Please model this.
Amino acid sequence: MVTDDIYQLISEHQIAAAVKLLGEQMQSHVRIPVEQRDRYHSAKRILETMLQYLESPIQDPELETNYSYLLRTLYEVTDALRDTEWLAQSPQYEKQSKYYSLLLDNGGLSMVVEQLTLQSNLATVDRPRYDELVTRLSMGLLYTQEWSDEISSSLDQLDDYVQQAALTAVTLSLLRSWHWGKLCWLLAKLMKTQGEQTMVRIRTVVGVLLVGELYSSRLALYEEQLPYTLQQIGEAITLEEYDMVWSHRLRMKYTPQVVEYVQKLFGRFNSPEFQQRFQEIISSTGDSEGPATFESVFGDEEELLPLVDDVQDGYEALKRLVARGFDVNAFATSSLLQGPFFDNEAHWLIPFDLQHSSLGAVMAQFSNEYQLGEDQIMTLLRESIFQQVDIDFYGSIFRISQLPGQVLQGISQGVLAMENVINRTPYLRPQERRLLAAEDYTKALQGYICQLARIYSFIGAKVAAETPFEIRFGKLNPFAQKQTEELYDKHLDLLRAYCVQTKEYAGEQAAIQFQLGRTSEPEARAQLMYRLAQTYYEEEKYMQAYFVMQQIPPQLLSGETSPLFIAQILYRMEQPGLAIALLEQVRQHAEPAKPSLAILRLLGVLYVKLRLYDKALPLLLQCEFEDEHPDTLYPLIAWCLMMAQRWDEAKAYASRSVTSYDQLDKDSLELQYKEFTPLLPALFTLIGGDLQGTLQALGKLLATADEHQQKRLISVYGECMYDLQQLGVPSHLLELIQTWLHQRINTF
Model:
């Protein structure tokens, strides 16, 4: 959607371009409220005034305050535009939004919450009424903007069942559009559940992390108004919780591969032989002292022994996939989640409850005809479903109730026999607040992530929210920065392993086999594979190149060819930290008297990339004396010295001429810093506090550059902004200068 582009422009500080695009879109959307149109025009005038003041010797004392107000206004006006986009693209969302807005007009959400609060026993005495109120509450939170302090405080008084539904509704609502009140309630809930391991806590943590990631560029503007600091919020999320949420989301990306695997695994189970034997299992289970085993059924039939092995191996394989967090249930959900119950999106938000009014007839049938109570039903469901996914439980119980009576009778006998030999946990209603053991907490969190995956797969058009399964690598979550940094390497290894294990690169594997078939000599085979990896690298298929390099024994390539090339690949994958770790390992194992210049040079550049200037500087200075093209390192050395506030030395290196860029390999990382050379004098002027001199210097650079060079110059300036802020230049001033640069070359 166009609003995605506007949000991106604002987050990248291209404010003038964002204002222009927003204005164009508002002209074409008649549904934008007049109030938001007025706010847009006000923001546009503010921007024009600030840019005028920027070039004036008289500075605006309210510049920072006005700039923050400008950004918040642009975000909020874009939010209004975003809602019109959803209405236009999702008729289902528009219908539901209008319906629940009208429905709630008579008393609104406050009345719904009040009724649930005052009638705490409603779930027991009048379950249909209770479910109706939960539906109205969930859908009101999901589809309307209604909110108040009264609603916020009253929600905390409701039972766990209702709170879980409300938390999911609020999360989905926030993933669709920004809402200050809902965000604050979600954060407050996080702090109140700190130290707990409950289902409410799970939905809270997941919601906070997903919302924080989506609004990472925006939250800093509201930090002073937030009820808690970003640090406090981050400390309320444990390392384990963040790891589980991130990892399980990653695993959901591989659901299609898992589905394909499971389908192949069970392909033979549809054979007539298996179906016949399966019926024998069902019918014999109730007659035996204990549950029948596959061995007892298949063991006498020699020709079916391979099938037995498939069943056993398949079951063990599924258990391993489940233990690692993959969604093995997904292959069956398309057929399970059908029918009137699933047409109501409110049912996708609630926890699973055997006493839900929609299950009344089903539970009566199980009890009266097959002597299956709640404990037995949960035993059956837990044995037939690998993950604790609430919506899958609902789907399974409806599907089981539709089986032929003979089959149901056999299942009943099997479950009762199973309970005689296995100790089962009694069924506990979700309304009952309870702490979970560590293992159960992990499983329940995994199940909730799967639940969200189901929502976006089946009813995504209805809820009209941003999918939480597009993981943004390299982007720190503002609510969990420390956790992100500590687990980043682990998560990258996880990603790389899954790419290989799920055969995402089957084409690359085939290419490898083709190359290897051309010769039997190990060294020659290694060179062929190396050239294949280079081909992928040149095509910007970096993960494929990495995959191929991992198949080559490093000793078969000359010198440090392998680690240097792999480090470059990792860098292109936007993983400089891992590239450094690899090179440091090589450096440590090298002979102390003969350090590798290539290793040191690449390490120095990578440390600059990560802004670890104290580590970069000694490496770059060493290379300066030994390298045949030391002048290409001068801009990097100047920058490191500047960040160390060694001003005279920095200016001296910045003034040295650089003539050897054309001697470098086209993939040399130093080339990325070529544009820093002409920019450095202007930046020194800015650090010195001379704004007018800075603008004059930047203006001259733009005037002497072609269109491509102008855009690259602005891009390089953008990369410098973080460092300049560390040296004391105000962030709002840096961003306004960037907007001024864009204005000068008319890129908006």
Remarks:
- The chain is about 70% helix and 0% strand.
